[in-house]
Specification:
Layout: H1 45-61, H2 70-84, H3 92-110, H4 114-133, H5 138-143, H6 152-160, H7 172-196, H8 198-207, H9 213-238, H10 256-276, H11 278-282, H12 284-290, H13 296-301, H14 304-324, H15 331-363, H16 367-392, H17 398-415, H18 418-433, H19 438-442, H20 449-452, H21 457-460, H22 478-482
Keywords: Membrane, Transmembrane, Transmembrane helix
Pfam families: DUF4153 (PF13687)
């Protein structure tokens, strides 16, 4: 018999054990259906040993500030330890993710372009963690790049529980205090002895190795980064979160007219734009030459960035419409209206690409222009995939396909060797018109050196860079190893005046 106060409903009986509260073993801010926490799980000692070895090897072969062979070597090392000790083989998508991540990390070892290397490393971060986190939803795709920062809270305890129970490791604070006290004693008394006896001073100089404090700090940072990758990856392959379960629930669909009317009006607007601007979109050189007062710059810049925004916002509109529409009853109407928006958006993407291509042919190529063309090509591929998903009204494969398409586009850009392509096209323009922006080319990396061989020697000396010291094998970069030595000259020869606008003013 349960006795309760008047007016107070009885407490329902508990079904199963109560969930741990804050501060208790097993407590997690994540719902148990998304990412439960095992409070007694411990990392295998074999895995911990390999992780420490990987950290030491990483400090030897990787310099994060250098685009070098260290990036793919560390990537191979991390994946080898993570999956080599997991007790299972990588799944099909994990194999693809590992291959794409390593391909992205190989770009800094082959090309010397800083901006391209940084973009590829950032993409490798997203792809690599998504490979480990898993998930097929948009929530999993977006969260995969941010959740790694929450991993240390779990992986540190998981690794710490691998220590034998009989070993009582001292606290970090006590270790720091004892170490600091030892160093102070050695420095004080050692310095006094060295100043008291020259012979002892020479012996101390011989026995005590000289080291660069900055280098020690950088090596320690690399060691910590590699451990972060290995322990985080090792934890994820054993305790992956169900990020798809964290996706927001689908809301109740709205009446068809509430989404069909604005979508139909938007379709009409897109169709009108494509129809009216057909000559502008596809006129190319002939349209520019035949239109009075219209230059190449005006043609290319006339709405290019607006068209880029139109492409991105059209994808957002499609995402909202698909979420609120009833894909069962309104399937035909949704296919017709959303398909029209996809097709016209592809035309808008093509027009934006053509505008920028015409501009580059007239005024030369640049890294920014190639990058935005790559983004537009990727957006065009996304529209095609959205249209294909609408044919069968199944889009479970779409988030991963969008990610793969983006990686393929980026690797395709890297495969073109963009800075050399830029230099080749600008040198083609120099051969036709005699105009060359040597100042811009001097700001590019050693990737352009093969293209510079096409210039006359008198002009080639106007494109220069600062001399670079060649380091150890661990900072090897294919492009830099093949580059000729160019030294910076403060005073350019007089022949360079036409190719360095504003330099002599």
């Amino acid at each position: 018999m349960t006795i309760t106060a008047p007016g107070v409903p009885p407490i329902p009986p508990l079904m199963g054990p109560a969930l741990p509260r804050h501060g208790e073993p097993g407590f997690s801010v994540w719902p148990r259906r998304v990412w439960p926490l095992d409070p007694v799980a411990a990392a295998p000692q074999r895995f911990v040993a390999f992780a420490l070895i990987a950290g030491l090897v990483g400090t030897t072969v990787w310099r994060p500030t250098e685009l070098s062979i260290g990036y793919p070597l560390v990537g191979v090392l991390v994946f080898a330890v993570v999956y080599g000790t997991a007790g299972r083989r990588p799944r099909r998508f994990e194999v693809l993710g590992i291959a794409m991540t390593l391909a992205l990390l190989t770009v800094p070892a082959l090309l010397a372009s800083p901006w391209l290397g940084q973009v590829c490393v950032a993409a490798a971060w997203v792809t690599g963690w998504h490979t480990l986190f898993g998930g097929r939803s948009w929530t999993a795709l977006v969260a995969g790049g941010f959740l790694p920062w929450l991993l240390p809270a779990r992986s540190v305890g998981w690794a710490g529980r691998s220590l034998p129970r009989r070993v009582h490791a001292p606290s970090v604070g006590r270790v720091a205090i004892v170490g600091a006290a030892t160093v102070v004693l050695v420095l004080v008394f050692g310095g006094l002895f060295a100043s008291a006896d020259p012979a002892f001073g020479r012996l101390a100089d011989t026995l005590v190795p000289s080291f660069d404090l900055g280098d020690v700090f950088s090596r320690a940072t690399v060691f910590a980064l590699v451990l972060f990758f290995v322990f985080g990856g090792g934890y994820l392959v054993r305790f992956p979160p169900a990020l798809d379960a964290a996706a927001p629930a689908r809301r109740t669909s709205v009446p068809p007219w509430e989404w069909a009317l604005p979508l139909a009006v938007l379709d009409a607007l897109f169709i009108a734009f494509v129809a009216v601007q057909a000559a502008v979109l596809f006129g190319g050189h002939h349209h520019v030459l035949e239109t009075e007062g219209l230059t190449y710059a005006e043609y290319a810049r006339q709405g290019f960035w607006q068209l880029l925004w139109v492409s991105g916002l059209a994808l957002l509109v499609l995402a909202v419409i698909i979420r609120v529409a009833d894909t069962g009853r309104d399937r035909r109407l949704l296919r017709a209206l959303a398909g029209t928006l996809c097709l016209t958006s592809i035309v808008v993407v093509a027009s934006a690409i053509m505008r920028m291509w015409v501009y580059q042919q007239a005024y030369g190529f640049s890294t920014e222009r190639l990058l935005v063309i790559t983004i537009e090509l990727w957006l065009g591929a996304v529209f095609v995939m959205v249209a294909l998903a609408g044919v069968r009204m199944t889009a479970g494969w779409l988030p991963r396909a969008v990610l793969v398409a983006g990686i393929v586009a980026l690797l395709g850009l890297a495969g073109l060797n963009p800075e050399r392509l830029i230099a080749d096209r600008n040198i083609d323009r120099f051969e036709r018109t005699g105009q060359l922006d040597a100042k811009y080319l001097s700001g590019l990396s050693s990737d352009i050196d093969p293209a510079l061989q096409r210039l006359p020697m008198s002009v080639r000396q106007c494109v220069h860079r600062a001399a670079r010291e060649r380091g150890g094998w661990y900072v090897f970069n294919l492009s830099r190893s093949r580059a000729a030595e160019y030294r910076y000259q403060a005073d350019l020869p007089a022949v360079c005046e036409p190719y360095w606008p504003g330099f002599y003013r």
